[in-house]
């Protein structure tokens, strides 16, 4: 009788814990994938910081177009402190006249650098969306695995209840009843473990949406990641659309404009000046003089001895060659990356077909048949447990593979410069 009371207490405890799981699940706030991506685009702190680079580069265009500031000079002197030679007062304005198209070259370079920053921002967004989606997929996978384990626990709990009643009726032994109860307890521990993993995957979304995501629930169908692509089309699209390749090409233009700027900087600039002066009356007895007004114009020509050292120009030319080489290297990398990603995605698709051919249905049918036979006393509890574990492993492997297939597609589209993920 004491053993029966203990068994009933454990069953009630299992039911209570299960009810807490269901309640906790219902209290989570759902967040759809489209809503999640909107948060990523609008509130991601890393993206907000990257946007400043574009604003800074655009402001640099205005800075590049500024003309040199003029200079005003004012002076006065006493021609003879003790001999009354009068005073001299004067002023002048001077300005540097840039030659060689320096201002135009600066503006062109700044515009190319701004365009390069915009393409870098596009590349950042491309990778951000892909990484954020992968994190969402991980949360979906964790949720699916948790649900599989919960369903397995519920099934074993139901069997444990049934075995407790059968043991009371004397249909099965005490050991058999204990075995099903212990298996339910073991499954409950695994539920705890997967629940923690699922909560961590939800919290990990916080890094992408710029706020705490704890308590939210992801929703979506992992079966939505099926596309039909040809390898050559993907490579062609990547060459036309990949932001990092376009940025590398733009970097060549930027390097070319820097060469023009360095050449323009080697051209001499002229210093122009204009001024006026006034000498007051000199009352000195030896050399008296009337008041005199003067006007002066001037031009200054710098001696560009520094042009004999053309290190800056050589650096600009080497940077241009480097940019061209980097562009070719990125092209080769893209071709390789897409080929590998395509192979990975194709492999995942083939593996999914195995499950689509009825593996899960067959495993479920076997489990139901063995469970039915066990309840009729025609099979052992060990056979039921083995069938249950096989079915659980297949379902877990299925959701693992769905997540791998989803990740493979996301990676393939990331590499190909495509984005049509929506589920």
TrEMBL record:
GO function terms (MF aspect): efflux transmembrane transporter activity
Pfam family, one: OEP
InterPro entries, alphabetized: MdtP/NodT-like, OMP_efflux
Stated family: Belongs to the outer membrane factor (OMF) (TC 1.B.17) family.
This protein's name: Outer membrane protein, cobalt-zinc-cadmium efflux system
Biological source species: Chryseobacterium ureilyticum
